[in-house]
Every structure is written in structure tokens, then in C-alpha cells.
Design a protein that fits this description.
This protein has 713 residues and is α+β, with helices and mostly antiparallel strands. It has 5 domains: 2-69, Alpha-Beta Plaits (2-Layer Sandwich); 79-196 and 304-375 and 656-712, no CATH class; 228-291, Calcium-transporting ATPase, cytoplasmic transduction domain A (Distorted Sandwich), CATH 2.70.150; 386-414 and 535-651, HAD superfamily/HAD-like (Rossmann fold); 418-531, Calcium-transporting ATPase, cytoplasmic domain N. The protein is built from 26 helices and 24 strands. Strands 5, 6, 7, 8, 9, 10 and 11 form a 7-stranded antiparallel beta sheet that branches. Strands 12-24-23-22-13-20-21 form a 7-stranded mixed beta sheet, with helices on both faces. A 6-stranded antiparallel beta sheet has the order 14-19-18-17-16-15. Helix 5 (137-148) crosses helix 6 and helix 6 (154-167) packs antiparallel against helix 12 (348-361). The longest helix is centred in the N-terminal third of the chain and has 38 residues, at 72-109. The two termini are 35 Å apart. 48% of the residues are buried.
């Protein structure tokens, strides 16, 4: 069983690492993942052996508070309320701290800039510093509590650093540290909240109310969360569908773009399925609720986005490992710094200043935020574009794609055969359509549908068929108006001694058409050429993949000539045709044996084995079926360009993570030695604790700002 928990009190990556380590150590816990950005934890555990109370207890024993998350909507609402409260509190603490910092700085350093300031004794400056320490008491309570639990975090470093500054009489430094750190946390929490905007926008699409039909036939408006399966719901023009269900009465024009991405509204009537968050553009309908609340396809999409945002990419493991022991090492470095400078005969002021600077500049916030912020922003941006990454691992892996294997039918092509030409040899075009449609009406073969449609469109009468026979994989036959009529492929005609060879046949076949031959009384009467046209964006999608240095391969069960014709039109590099669904997996395996990273894009049904075998599987056009277990990425729209877009977005996210990690490591690699006075003997450089606090806050803010750029990727 997987459950989500809201964690309160986390301040840095060390906090997340401590909680994760302790919960993972519990018996019967398969995996626990903590997200610093969303302040949550997902735990996979054996519910027969332990429950939520034991998990919450472990988190609390680690020094933090926890509670089981509520439903998607209620939980998100509570989370937003908590975040808003945290932002308000941090802003309040920052402004109060700033109010005391300004006069303190003027009184202690005014003479340096020629300001006429009165002489104030040290205890007077201490009086100004005391309220700032009190209002920011959480650093001391949380920091010391976790220090005594041998699991120090960012608060521990701030507590030790600022407390040492107060004791040593660096009142302006102590207040500056607390003020700047609080300002940094305030801006950081505000910015982190913006990375979840995509989920908020999605959730805003779902209606909050539903109009149900009561047992006495009256309409009653209730909260959408109170709906039950079986409820009869009325939906008027302009209203959103509040549940997944079936139309029982009335008709309407429904905008389903929120789920399918299809811009054209669709007609809905009795018996048709409708889905949550789609909009009734015109008409009035009654529907029976089949799935409500968390069970709807729309809730599933939101859940998928949230789970991906809270999951961890392989690239994050380095940061996690470092964060786990980073704070204790920093405290050790601060102690070593103090000892070394004391042994070197430095003044106590300098020793204290350098040790405090080491503690303050080394807070691992930037390191801990580098990966999760980019992942949350990237998955959110993907959701806005209809690209659903199921895990952070998929988000990272698809960036390494070297070969993109793409299914033909329904992925590169529309998946709906259309009549491109009708060749008459005996009789009229109408004769060919009528005789062929009459047979196809009984066969229910997909290739027969466009022929039946054109007969109906032309107003032609479907004739009665006697002695109807089906020859699987070859064709059909029957007696129509006393004539023996056959319809099928070339092999079927040849079996019945009907000559089909000729210039016209060869020309049609070479252009990739699927040919349906119609024979009447032993002779060829006509040919109907069908073609599954490429989607308008297929060529552009293939071109974008190739521009990223990715080889493109078309995989299809269709014949070689048809496949090559489509490949030529779309720009595909290589064609593998006439393969059965179960054989597609072998093609993927063969490419992987060459040591190349493979992406498979398919419809998620008959391509499931291949999707699963690929390094990354993308299911296209699955907006109302997001539970395709075979796929790592689900595209809500039927646009193959979204597959290329997923790769582009992935590359942007991984690039962003690498930038963030580089600057986080670079900042600490340079900042800690500078604060410790390593460069002082050669250059005279030192770092005041006040500037260390400013640098620490700015480093976190830079990482957050860089990640937010992905919202426009």
C-alpha cells in the first residue's frame, strides 16, 4: 500500500534525508520518499503489519511533525493553507527583524560612514538584538532538538552560528544572520509554491459543485466531493461535468480538450461516456455517475503529476548522499577552523567570526533544492502541455534517448483508413461501392468502414447478401442479385482465378495504398484504394527528434511498401515492417543490445510489450486511460510532436538540474574555505558572518529562480 503524508518543519535537504532514513529503517516499509519541495512523503508499506500511526510516530521521533494526507482536493487545499500561513509568518518575522536590524546597524557601524550616532554600550546593542532572537526562536528550538538527536539540519547551523555571535558580542552579525536567513526562507517558500502552479491550474478546471436529480425529481446543488456512484446529474450549458459517467438523457456539445487535447467539441447523447472537467458548450443532459472523486480519470491525471513531482530522479542520489552527512561535517569544519586559528595565535574575535561564517555559509538548502525544484517545475510544465511523466526517473531517462522507435498506425498516421481512389474496370463506380459495401456491412472489418460510410453518404442502398462467407486474412464473398461477388486482397482474387495484375494496380500499390479488389462473376470489376494518412504534425515531430541527434525507426505490422511510403513522407530514417505485436519487443531488445538508449512511442495497447521493453515508453493519445502500466510517459493528446516535446523538456530539466547542482557544489566549495580563512595567509581575504548569511540566502534563491525558468520551457 502507498500512502502520502504531509511533513511539517523541514528546512533543508538534511531534514528530508533524516526522515527518509528513519522511515526506510522501519520493518515492513518497502520504500519511503520525502519531497522537500512539496513538504510531503510517499511511503510504500505492508499495511497488514504496520499502519499510519507507526509511520507518523517515527517522523515525530525524528524531530518533525506529520499527518496522513487527505484526498487530492482537500489535501491540496490544506497544503496551500499551510504554505500561505508559512509565507505570512516568515514575512512577519523578516519585517520585524529588519525593523531592529536597521537601528542596530546604524548604532554599531554608523561612524564608519560618517553618521552622527550616539555612543551605545554593548548591552544596549544586545537589547536590540534580543527581540530578533526571540521572534526567530524556531531556529533554536528545532535546531538544538535535532542536534541532540544527532541529526543536525540547517536550523542547527543557524542556531549555533547566531547563538555564538550573540555570546561573543557580535550583535549586528547575529541579527543580520537571522534577518537574512529568514528573508531567504520567505522568498524561497514563495517561489517553491509557484512550482506547483500547474497542478493548481489543473485542479481549478474541476467543478466544485454538482446538480443532482433527487428521488422526487427535483434538482439540488451539492458539493462535487459528495457525489456517489449511481447519482443522476444534470449538466446545463456552460457547466463542467462533475464525474465520469454515462449520458442517460439529452444531448450536448462537449469540449473535451482538458483530457484529450482535441480542440473540436464533440456531440454526446444517450449511451455516450463523459468525463470530469470537460465542458458542456451547448445543450442539456442527464448523466449517471460511474466514477466520482479520486476515481475519475481527471483525478488520476492530477495524482500522476503529483507523484512524478514527488519522486526522485537518479541524478538526485548524489545530492541526497551528500546532504545526509553534510551538516555534521560542516560543524566539524567549524570546530577545526576554531582550533587551527587558536593554535595559530589569532585573536578570539577572528576565531569566532570565521567559525560562525563557516556555519552560516554552509547551509545545504541550495543542494537539497537543486533537483526536486527542477523536477516539480518540469513535470508541471509537462502537464500543462498534456505530457504526463509517471516518475522523475522517466523524466531523466528520456533525455538520454539515442533511438526513437515509433509505431505507425495511430501514432504517425491517423489510424483511420480513408478512400483515396476508386478504379472501375467493369461497371460504374457506384456499382463497385454498392456491391463492396453490401459485403463489408456483414463483415464488420475496420477496412470496410470507409466503404460503408461513402455508400451511406452517397445515399446508395445496401443490398441483400446470400451465402455470405468470410475467409480470414484474405476476403469475403456472397451472392448479390444472383451474382457471385468477392471482396478482398490480391491473394484472395488469385485463389479464385481472378486476374489482378496490371499497371494501375502496381502504381497504387507502390504509393503505399491498401487495395481492396472487387470481383464479380469471375472477373475483376474494380479496385478501392485505402490510405491511412499521416498526421499533419508527424513530419515535424520526426524532424525535431532528428535535430536532437536521435535516429528514428518506424515499427509496424503493415507491409513493407506501405510502411516505406509513409516513412518517406514523414522523414523516418529506418523502417521495420511486417512485425507482429509480440515481435516488436524483440526489435527493441536488439537495438538495446547495441548499447543504445531506446525510446518507444506507441498507442499503449498492442505496443505494450515494446513500450515496457524500451528504456522509456511513451503512450500517445491516452488522456482518458492514464493507467497504462506499460508506459513511462503518457501523452494526453494524439499529437506525435508531444513525444519530441517530452524529450526536449526532459533535456531542459536535466540541464537545469546540472546547473543547479554545479552552482550548489561550487558555492560550498568556494564559500567554506573562504569562510574558514584558508585564503587569508595569501590574500588577506576573510568573510564576515553577515555576508556569509547573505550569500547563503542568495544561493538558495538562485537555485529556485533557475528552476522556475522551466515553467516557460
Amino acid at each position: 500500500m502507498k500512502k502520502k503524508y504531509i511533513i511539517k518543519g523541514m528546512g533543508c535537504a538534511a531534514c528530508a534525508a533524516t526522515i527518509e532514513k528513519n522511515v526506510n529503517a522501519m520493518a515492513s516499509v518497502r520504500e519511503a520518499r520525502v519531497s522537500l519541495v512539496s513538504g510531503s512523503m510517499i511511503v510504500d508499506f505492508n499495511e497488514k503489519q504496520i499502519g499510519s500511526p507507526e509511520i507518523v510516530k517515527t517522523v515525530r521521533e525524528s524531530g518533525y511533525d506529520a499527518e496522513e494526507a487527505k484526498s487530492t482536493y482537500e489535501g491540496k487545499k490544506d497544503q496551500e493553507k499551510t504554505t500561505a500561513g508559512e509565507i505570512k509568518e516568515l514575512k512577519y518575522r523578516f519585517l520585524i527583524s529588519l525593523g531592529f536590524l536597521i537601528p542596530l546597524m546604524v548604532l554599531s557601524m554608523g561612524e564608519m560612514i560618517k553618521l552622527p550616532v550616539p555612543e551605545v554600550p554593548s548591552w544596549g546593542l544586545g537589547i536590540l538584538a534580543f527581540p530578533v532572537a526571540v521572534i526567530n526562536y524556531k531556529y533554536y528550538t528545532r535546531g538544538t532538538k535535532l542536534l541532540f538527536k544527532a541529526a543536525p539540519n540547517m536550523d542547527s547551523l543557524i542556531a549555533i552560528g547566531s547563538l555564538a555571535a550573540l555570546i561573543l558580542g557580535y550583535f549586528e552579525s547575529a541579527v543580520m544572520i537571522l534577518t537574512l536567513v529568514t528573508m531567504g526562507k520567505w522568498l524561497e517558500v514563495r517561489s517553491k509554491g509557484r512550482t506547483g502552479d500547474a497542478v493548481k491550474k489543473l485542479m481549478a478546471l474541476a467543478p466544485r459543485e454538482a446538480r443532482i436529480i433527487t428521488k422526487d425529481g427535483h434538482e439540488k446543488i451539492i458539493p462535487a466531493e459528495d457525489l456517489l456512484p449511481g447519482d443522476i446529474i444534470a449538466v446545463k450549458s456552460g457547466e463542467s461535468i462533475p464525474a465520469d459517467g454515462t449520458v442517460t438523457e439529452g444531448t450536448c456539445i462537449l469540449d473535451e480538450s482538458t483530457l484529450t487535447g482535441e480542440s473540436m467539441p464533440v456531440d454526446k447523447g444517450p449511451g455516450d461516456e463523459v468525463f470530469t472537467a470537460t465542458i458542456n458548450k451547448a445543450g442539456y443532459l442527464k448523466m449517471k455517475a460511474d466514477k466520482v472523486g479520486e476515481e475519475t480519470a481527471f483525478s488520476g491525471i492530477i495524482r500522476l503529476v503529483e507523484e512524478a513531482a514527488d519522486s526522485k530522479a537518479p541524478i538526485a542520489r548524489l545530492a541526497d548522499k551528500v546532504s545526509a552527512f553534510f551538516v555534521p561535517i560542516v560543524i566539524l569544519i567549524a570546530v577545526i577552523t576554531a582550533v587551527c586559528w587558536i593554535l595559530a595565535g589569532a585573536e578570539l574575535d577572528r576565531v569566532g567570526s570565521m567559525s560562525i561564517a563557516v556555519l552560516v555559509i554552509s547551509c545545504p538548502c541550495a543542494l537539497g533544492l537543486a533537483t526536486p525544484l527542477a523536477i516539480m517545475a518540469g513535470t508541471g510544465r509537462g502537464a500543462e502541455k498534456g505530457i504526463l511523466f509517471r516518475t522523475a526517473e522517466a523524466l531523466e531517462t528520456v533525455s538520454k534517448t539515442q533511438v526513437a522507435v515509433i509505431d505507425k498506425t495511430g501514432t504517425l498516421t491517423k489510424g483511420r483508413p480513408e478512400i483515396s481512389e476508386i478504379v472501375t474496370i467493369k461497371g460504374t463506380e457506384e456499382d463497385i461501392i454498392v456491391y463492396t459495401a453490401s459485403l463489408e456491412k456483414l463483415s464488420e472489418h475496420p477496412l470496410g468502414l470507409p466503404i460503408i460510410e461513402i455508400a451511406e453518404k452517397k445515399g446508395l442502398d445496401i443490398k441483400k447478401v446470400d451465402r455470405f462467407l468470410v475467409m480470414p486474412g484474405r476476403g469475403i464473398e456472397g451472392i448479390i442479385e444472383g451474382k457471385r461477388v468477392l471482396s478482398g486482397n490480391k491473394e484472395f482474387m488469385q485463389e479464385n482465378d481472378i486476374l489482378v495484375e496490371g499497371g494501375q494496380t502496381a502504381k497504387l500499390y507502390e504509393t503505399g495504398r491498401t487495395l481492396i479488389y472487387t470481383g464479380i462473376d469471375g472477373g475483376l470489376a474494380g479496385i478501392i484504394a485505402l490510405r491511412d494518412e499521416p498526421k499533419e504534425s508527424s513530419r515535424e515531430a520526426v524532424l525535431e527528434l532528428k535535430e536532437m541527434g536521435i535516429e528514428t525507426v518506424m515499427l509496424t505490422g503493415d507491409n513493407q511498401i506501405t510502411a516505406e511510403a509513409i516513412a518517406k513522407e514523414t522523414g523516418i530514417d529506418k523502417v521495420v515492417a511486417q512485425v507482429m505485436p509480440e515481435e516488436k519487443k524483440n526489435v527493441i531488445d536488439d537495438i538495446k543490445k547495441e548499447g543504445r538508449n531506446v525510446l518507444m512511442i506507441g498507442d499503449g495497447i498492442n505496443d505494450a510489450p515494446a513500450l515496457k521493453a524500451a528504456d522509456t515508453g511513451i503512450a500517445i493519445g491516452a488522456g482518458t486511460d492514464i493507467a497504462i502500466e506499460a508506459a513511462d510517459i503518457v501523452l494526453m493528446h494524439e499529437d506525435p510532436k508531444d513525444g519530441a516535446c517530452a524529450v526536449k523538456l526532459s533535456k531542459a530539466v536535466v540541464r537545469n538540474i546540472k546547473q543547479n547542482l554545479f552552482w550548489a557544489f561550487f558555492y560550498n566549495s568556494l564559500g567554506i574555505p573562504l569562510a574558514a580563512g584558508v585564503f587569508y595567509p595569501f590574500t588577506g581575504w576573510t568573510l564576515d558572518p553577515m555576508f556569509a548569511a547573505a550569500a547563503m540566502s542568495m544561493s538558495s534563491l538562485c537555485v529556485v529562480t533557475n528552476a522556475l525558468r522551466l515553467r516557460k520551457a
